[in-house]
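Researcher: Go.
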Amino acid sequence: MALLSSLLLALVVFSCGPGGSLGCDLPPNHVLLSRENLVLLSRMSTISSFFCLKDRKDFRFPRTTVTGSQVQEALAISVLHEMLQQTFNLLLTEHPTPAWNTTLLDQLRRALHRQLEALDTCLVREMGKEGSALAMQGPTLALKRYFQGIRLYLKEKQYSDCAWEVVRVEVMRAFSSTRLLLKRLRNKDTDMESP
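Model: Structure:
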């Protein structure tokens, strides 16, 4: 349970923060939505991860590609957006486990959707006209492949309760890894503001 709490906290750190940290004014409720997502994710677990150890898999999160020093500010927004979008799509289309509370699942989907809407404006502003080209290469493309691997795993495991628990924990790990990118960008913003 302590590991789960740490991962949830990491997701808050990653997806929250000052509105201007990415050069984009996110709505004030963005932080509240992120906290809401964490609470919902933690409450969705109906099975102990311990019982699913045999189902664990290394999905090979593209940590270096996504959090590496070469990722620029506009691309960082794209990465955050892609993580949220792929998570939203996964929960919407991949037959989530019937063991999950459908009310909590619907609330999580709505919260992710609201965050995506807030990031859409930032994404367009930061990436401009070359946004669609940038979105199809590097870190964003690596994330799409990563989530495709998760979808294939779920299908192979026939969308079992344990498979969904493994995926839930994996998605939280992915979010915690990307917080390093946000931290680096925040430090960069702070360096630019100092004399």
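Model: Residues 1-22 have pLDDT under 50 and may be disordered.
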